[in-house]
Amino acid sequence: MEHTGLDRYAPIGVFDSGVGGLTVAREIMRQIPNEHIVYFGDTARVPYGSKSKETVTKYSEQIVRFLQTQHVKAIVVACNTASACALDTIEKDIDIPIIGVVKPGAKVAVSVTQNGKIGVIGTAATIDSHIYSDYIQQLDPSMQSIGKACPLFCPLVEEGLWEDPVTDEIASRYLSELIDVGIDTLILGCTHYPLIRKAIGRIVGEGVTLVNPAYETALELRALLNSNGLLNDRKPELGANQYQFFVSDAAEKFKTFANSIIKYGILTAKTVHIEEY
Fold it and tell me: Of 53, 64, 77, 275, which is the most exposed, with the fewest CB atoms less than 10 Å away?
């Protein structure tokens, strides 16, 4: 549907429970380089993956209200847990385009699998929601999807243990049952996981295709903006503040981590009292 009255030069709002969504922001920067981004990481209330659907929905609604004060033209829910728990509710409340990370990843998994056995790893909340398996079934009822919660992956990523024997050990424990089932495709169903894709790839082996929903989401966002006449056709001016980062806590720690992922130089991360929204 055509969204009239929206400004194509306005920023895209991107939010996550913390730092994981930066993998999505990074792909948006790569795939749609003219766009401005306002990123919010809910670092005070991370992790979302162990919380109830109601709580995740409440937090997501507050963040969306904050992003609307930044006059964003579209919102990307760069968090699988929030996409699984809250996207349906938020979609009804706002009149700007919004996408999550689940559907783009599921579509690609269905298109690349050869044997119809798709593994999904994510937080407990994402796996318990069955959102991936339900959507994969909608796309193709012959598919078999096998979910596995991997709650220790997020803290390992946030501790910077991307290449570490501990991460390999945990990965082999989590992934062994998916390997036993004979999956040939694995959805990295949490935005933290692309940062340890090498470790995951080593464990599952070359015969398994890894699907990174962050990349697919950026492509889908580009198509969505294009179809709504909202793609920014102007290159940002030199020195323009193209990317802005907001967090609910621990701005310094966020900034350090963000700079290790995004090479565009994150100058500041401002703290927002998100409960006020």
Answer: 275
46 vs 106: which has the higher pLDDT: 106
pTM over 0.90: yes
**214 sits in which H/E element:** helix 213-227
Structure tokens at 94: 């706002």
Report the candidate in 66, 74, 71, 68 with the shortest Cα–Cα distance to residue 12. 74
> Does residue 47 have a cis peptide bond before it, meaning omega lies within 30 degrees of 0?
yes
Q: Is the confidence at residue 263, as pLDDT, over 80?
A: no
Q: Which residues are known to be catalytic?
A: 79, 190
Please enumerate in sequence order all residues whose Cβ is within 8 A of that of 127, keeping only pairs 6 or more positions apart, or say none. 120, 121, 147, 148, 149, 189
Mean pLDDT value of segment 170-182: 97
**Interatomic CA distance for residues 41 and 120, integer angstroms:** 24
* pLDDT, tens digit (0-9, with 9 covering 90-100), for 123-150: 999 999 999 999 999 999 999 999 999 9
Q: Which domains does the chain have, with CATH numbers?
A: 12-100+215-276 (3.40.50.1860), 103-213 (3.40.50.1860)
